[in-house]
Amino acid sequence: MSAHKKEGDKDSLLQKDEDEADGVGANPFGEAVAETELQEIQTIQTEVVDITAKLWAADEMTDEEAEELERQSNLLKYKLAMASSAVKEWGMQQALERIQDHENRRKWHDPAKSDHVKKVAMQMAPIAFGFMLLVGLASQVHFDDSRLIPGQIYALAGLQPFVYPLGSSSHMVEVRIQIPSLAAPGSSSSGGHRRNSARRNSARDWLTQVTQHRRAGKNTTLPGKAPPAANPPSKTPAPAAGKTPAKTPAPAPAPPAVHEVAEGPRETITAYLFNMPDNGWLHRGFDGHGNGKPSLDNLTAQALEPPEKIAEWVATAEGELPVMIEFELLADPSHQLFVLGTSSGDALPVAVSLHSLGPTGPYQVVIAGFILTFVFGLIVTEVLHRCMAAMLGAALTLTVLAAQHRVPNLAKTVGWMDHGTLALLWGMMIIVGVTTRTGVFEWTGVVACKLSGGSKKKLLLLLCLVTAILSAFLDNVTTILLISPVTIKLCSLVNQNPIPYLISEAIYSNLGGTATMIGDPPNIIIGNMLSKWLGFNDFLFNLCPGVILSCPAVFYFLLYFWKEEFEGQLKADIPKLQRLYPITDPALLVKCGAVLACVISSFFLHPVTHFDPAWVAILGAVWLLVAFDMHHCHEALHGVEWDTLLFFAALFVIVEGLGELGLLRFVASTLGGMIAEAPIASRQYFAIGLILWSSAFFSAFVDNIPFTATMVPILKQLAADVPGIAIEPLAWALAFGACFGGNGTLIGASANIVMAGKAAAEGHHITFVYFFKVGMPAMIISMVVITVYMMAANALFYQAMVVAPGAAP
Q1: Longest C-alpha distance within the chain, in Å?
Q2: Contact present, 360 and 271 (Cβ < 8 Å)
Q3: DSSP label at residue 455
Q4: Dist. CA 731–CA 239, nearest whole Å
Q5: CB distance 635 to 218 below 8 Å
Q6: Cβ neighbours for 376, distance < 8 A, ≥ 6 positions apart
Q7: Non-local CB neighbours of 571 within 8 Å, separated by 6+ positions
Q8: I need a surface site. Which of 264, 358, 450, 783 has the fewest CB within 10 A?
Q9: Helix ranges, 629-703 (H)
Q10: pLDDT at site 737
Q11: pTM (2 decimals)?
Q12: 541-580, pLDDT tens digit by residue?
């Protein structure tokens, strides 16, 4: 050992006298001296690395030899600090000289500098002009201030239809309707008080009001009066010459579907599209002669052709029903009418909001697909940082909405961002950042290394199991925030690449979160929207077996993919690691441990308390900041990864904007139509497989939260209207696909993004392509296992749930 030490330190700086360290960098104000100091810093850093390698490479080193090497390392670190201080002092001297030189230079008012001023002005002019042009264009944009019930509530009854002239619209129209509940006033279901209000405030002379507004040049929508109409012919006649036929993208897979969700009082609401010969019906009256009572039959008699039946819904006592339809207009829509009729004899307070989408309306789905592809291209190629790519995609989405005169205002845009996810991330980042100062993550890493027995495969298995189990009962984002610092510190202690372990943990957090109703946001959405059919235990009994079957297959794939990384044993002296990495701040650890224990306990109790986990994380973070140091709380804020939060916020805006453009509705309606056209004998098998794989691949590229929220109403409608399928297996297929699909890409799940952010903060960059090479095969393997599991479960259990055609659901 002494010979090796003598050879390694032959040309080392340690041969200098130790007292010489105090004089390092004296008067380092010359450039040559600064270069010498920088070279010395590099030499010292190299020697520190060599000594550290000796500490790990020596298997039979005595404590005295180890202490000598540590003493040498500490001396080198001291020399490094002194040399760095010298370079800093030289840099400060250079800065002072530059400031003095700047003071001696000619000022802006000096005529000799006029050419330079003109050059700078020419550089600034395009930037200023572009910004002011952008502000000017934005000031002309119509901001959509509408809400779900924006105050435009119309009394709809059999003798009082809703009529809207479409003369001021063009190309395509979007209509949002809030259908009320038929619950009695004072009952638990909402809607009864609105029915009484609509009955009291119903318009008595609709024709007079509309005529006055038309004469004043206004295009104001007012409620009309008409008796319940018999179903007009649904056959759409051929369009007139030179006109584009009206096209209605069906929100349901079947022809105009009846949305029926419960027994009890029911009233039908139907949407029609009329093509009138002129605007004379406003002056002649609904019967064409000015003296008849208004009715849909009389409107039909005056129309050029039988009206087109766009959609039909059923209002029940189950709850309010928000719906949306889109339809294309004729080339000249000046005489077209949008009409809502009902079979109810009582007034129904229906909220209606209409938007003319303009020339981009018929192509909005294609535009949305282009924006999505463009953003993913930027992220995959890493031409821009993923945060900038997402912000650029959000700007493009809002630009398209502005072209349709429905760009959301600031409040609505901020509302598109998932506040729960952002608040949870912010709170847990602060808690984890403060806890890092205690050294507990290094200590936990040493414990994990000890439990693995030095085996890399056992260590991977241990980390994956802990991640999956915690994700089943905690939010998977929280799990990654807690487990990733431990993994990074552990890998640094044993000289291992942390990227394979981190990616494996992200994959298992998505797998484990699927097992319960509270483990992943898609499951929470499915459980809340289908609470009539599904409960917490149903999720556990139906999803947990599939997760258990999938985990071993994915684990063996990870071992195969990184077979070189996980071969052999960890080279670590556990007793020495325990001495080198104890708890550094026990007092702070007690505070952090108390707060973290309360926060995690509150997460576990969420099914009982129903207290939002985001609020729990925020309260825990604020309380820990108070306990940490109220005068230096800004230091704790350095642990927040603001670029990750901005990326999430921009990504939420993109996804919600694409939903506004109809991309999610188009995908959901297409899937529903394919299921409805499948043979009834094998329809449920086909539906399970289609929803499994389509939701998995779509969730890999688009946030699974809005996709799940869009798909659940389609599943409810399919189960109610299409024979041969049941709602429960479709819900489980959607849950498996949406959660497992998050493993496909780096931005497929929130846990993946958080993991990549934590790795980047420690100097380990994980690219989109590298994660794709691991995540996509892992997703496909797990989906194959789940497909077999779901088909077997359908044959044994789910097929018996199918309601026979004609039977009551």
Answers
A1: 117
A2: no
A3: B
A4: 41
A5: no
A6: 701
A7: 56, 494, 495
A8: 264
A9: 633-636, 642-660, 663-676, 683-701
A10: 94
A11: 0.66
A12: 999 999 999 999 999 999 999 988 888 888 777 787 778 7
The whole-angstrom separation of Cα 95 and Cα 427 is: 40
**Residues 186, 192, 198, 201: what is their CA dihedral angle, to the nearest 10 degrees?**
0
Q: Which residue is it, tokens 């709809």?
A: 156
- Residue ranges, the chain, pLDDT below 50: 1-29, 145-151, 186-263, 288, 290, 805-809
Contact 749, 734 (CB under 8 A): no
What CA–CA distance (Å, rounded) separates 533 from 702? Answer: 27
Which bin fits 495, alpha (ψ -120 to 50), beta or left (φ > 0)? left
Give phi and psi for 350, each to the nearest 5.
Answer: -95, 125
Which pair of structure tokens corresponds to residue 92? 């400060």
Q: What is the pLDDT of residue 266?
A: 67
Q: What is the structure's pLDDT at 425?
A: 83
First and final C-alpha spacing in the chain: 83
Please name the helix (run of DSSP H) or strand (run of DSSP E) that holds residue 6, with its range, or none: helix 2-8
Helix, strand, coil shares of the chain as percentages rounded to 5? 60, 10, 30
* Both structure tokens of 569: 């044993």
Of the candidates 659, 749, 735, 722, which has an alpha carbon nearest to the alpha carbon of residue 691? Answer: 735
What is the C-alpha separation between 101 and 99, in angstroms, rounded? 5
306: left (phi over 0), alpha (psi -120 to 50) or beta: beta
Output the CA–CA distances (angstroms, integers) from residue 286 to 40, 276, 706, in the order listed: 96, 12, 43
Amino acid at residue number 435: T
Q: Is 163 helix (H, G, I), strand (E, B) or coil?
A: strand
- Residue 214: what pLDDT? 38
CA distances from 197 to 158, 322, 347 (A): 17, 19, 9
Backbone angles phi, psi at 311, to 5 degrees: -160, 165
- For residue 54, the SS3 value is helix
Q: Are strands 407-408 and 143-144 parallel, antiparallel or unpaired?
A: parallel
In the prediction, which pLDDT does 24 show?
Answer: 41
Strand partners, 154: 350
Query: How far apart are alpha carbons 375 and 630 in whole angstroms?
Result: 41
pLDDT of residue 41: 73
